[in-house]
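Hey,
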Amino acid sequence: MSESNELLSAVQEIRNLVRLMAEPAIAELDRNLRTELKRIVGNSIPKSKAVLLMIGKRTQSDIQRETGINKGNLSTLVKQLNEAKLLTGDPKNPKLSISIPSNFFDSVLAED
């Protein structure tokens, strides 16, 4: 039993070291994706609100109803986000591939 605990501990240490080594690359990738997300959304309040609802649990129709964004604009937004690899899964229930804080678009939403 002790041997398996030592093995588990060693594996956990290795995992932590790999995460530590990979962190700069992960942060850089996330930074690039966040920059691209801001470029796509721009200063659009409806797009900002729509993106914040893209958690994979709402359909595009749900998002359109909740935000009031034009259906065509939402469809174009989803297409652009998908092409930029910012969405995962089915675009009918869009889900961002990166996590963003709820205040990510505060400068845009402050104009609301």
